[in-house]
Every structure is written in structure tokens, then in C-alpha cells.
């Protein structure tokens, strides 16, 4: 059995502020880099206990060079850095005939109050919608998994995102390690989070067959940029249109066309 893990940091247990996500501020970053690695290790171990013999890990935050691979189980393969393909945080998921996709350290969507670090892809947009629903990176990446027929079995991150995931995929197993309140974060103990992720990931992988991603027939994406200048220039992407001076809209029936739009327009 093969499992794919996409790992972010802004939903890692206890994380609260941008310097804690950035290599350039090592004093703040180091504890969360470590915790991110421990959470991925826990998810890998859970997957292995459920029968996975290979776990493919995509380091999916910022430089994509956050995880310490030496701390992960030996059966993993890990993709560090960015290939430059539109799959982005899911790069590699198209290649492996995976039986389940797992997400760790994920965070709520742009403008959501459920995480002080909430955003979608970058900080240049106020929000993103897909078919009228505020879109997170999780939603986009779940659709990417679904596009390749991979069930989305597990998510750890903030509570707002876990609540959303349960609505999208009722069979998914989640661990809400953080809850955002304005600029604050209330979290579990980091060791308790690791324990919970280890146990939940095993349960999740065993339940993966109940976690198919519901794929819409059509995807209408809107990116609301913070700056009208940026929206204007990005609206020249083939097939895109500008609405309300800040909204760049794109519609397609094939999710990969949306991913390609996102790849060039975000
Ligand atoms: Zn990130």
C-alpha cells in the first residue's frame, strides 16, 4: 500500500506567528520545524502500522526544505524543493498509484478567523472561492488528490479547517491541534499532538476507502487580489476575466485547467 503525505507548517501544533514559519528567523522557526517533522513522522508511523509499505512525503511549505528526513521512517521517499509543476503542494501524487493522501500542518483559508496565519497559497489575495465556497489550500489539494483518484483520509491542522474537511469528506479523520482566536492560538501539548496524529493516521489509512473526494462537474474559481493592479495584469491569463477590478475569475470542467490557472495567476 502506498500513502502520499503533503506537509505544511501553519497548522503545526502551537504555531502562531510568521517568524515561526520562516527559515530566515531561525530562533523562532527551529521549534516549529522540529514539531512539523515530528508530526509528519507520526503520520508516517500511523500509515505504516495500517499497512503502508511506502510513504511519499511532499515537503510543501515555502522553501519546501523544512523537514529533517533523517527523523522520518526509512521506507519514505521525500520530495524537497519545488519541481515547478502545477500540482504544487501535491507534486508527485500523479505518479504513485497512491491508496490514500494525508495532510499535516494544514491551515485555514484566506480571511478565515480560525488561524492567525490563515491564507490561501500566498498573502497577495484577500480570499479565493471555488463554486462560491471560500477555498483553502486543503480544498484545492483535495481536488488534486481526487483528480488522480486518491482518497483524502487524514488532516491535521487548525480546528476551522478540520471542521470544513469533515463537511467536504465525512469519512475523513482529523486532528485539530490548534484553535485560532483573533491573533492568538490555543493548542494541545505538542507531544499530545504527535500521539494523536500517530493514532489517527493509522485509523485514517485503514478507513481510506470511505474517503473519496466529491469532484464537481465544473470549477468556478475567483481570486480576489489585495491590489487592483495585480488583478488587472493577471486577468490576461487565457480564459480569465476581470470582475469588480480586484476579482480574477476562471471556469473549467477539468481540474487540471484550474490548477494551471492557479499556477500562473496566484
Ligand atoms: Zn505553509
Bound ions, cofactors and other small molecules, one mention each: zinc ion
Radius of gyration: 17 Å
Poorly predicted sequence stretches spanning 5 or more consecutive residues: none
Number of helices: 6
Number of domains: 2
Give an account of the 3D structure.
- The protein has 266 residues and is of the alpha/beta class.
- The protein folds into two domains: 2-119 and 137-210, Rossmann fold (3-Layer(aba) Sandwich); 219-265, no CATH class.
- Helix content is 30%, strand content 25%.
- The protein is built from six helices and twelve strands.
- It has helices at 26-49, 137-147, 159-168, 190-206, 228-234, 255-265, and strands at 2-7, 54-59, 76-79, 100-106, 125-130, 133-134, 152-158, 173-181, 184-187, 219-225, 241-243, 247-252.
- It has a seven-stranded mixed sheet, sandwiched between helices.
- Helix 1 packs parallel to helix 4 (190-206).
- The radius of gyration is 17 Å and the shape is globular.
- The chain starts with a strand and ends with a helix.
- The mean pLDDT is 98.
- The structure holds zinc ion (ZN).
Structure summary:
The protein has six helices and twelve strands. With 266 residues, the protein is an alpha/beta fold.
Jot down its keywords.
12 strands; five-stranded antiparallel beta sheet; seven-stranded mixed beta sheet; Rossmann fold; alpha/beta; 2 domains; globular
List the helices and strands and how they pair.
Blueprint: E1 2-7, H1 26-49, E2 54-59, E3 76-79, E4 100-106, E5 125-130, E6 133-134, H2 137-147, E7 152-158, H3 159-168, E8 173-181, E9 184-187, H4 190-206, E10 219-225, H5 228-234, E11 241-243, E12 247-252, H6 255-265
Parallel strand pairs: 1-2, 1-4, 2-3, 4-7, 7-8
Antiparallel strand pairs: 5-6, 5-10, 8-9, 10-12, 11-12
The structure holds zinc ion.
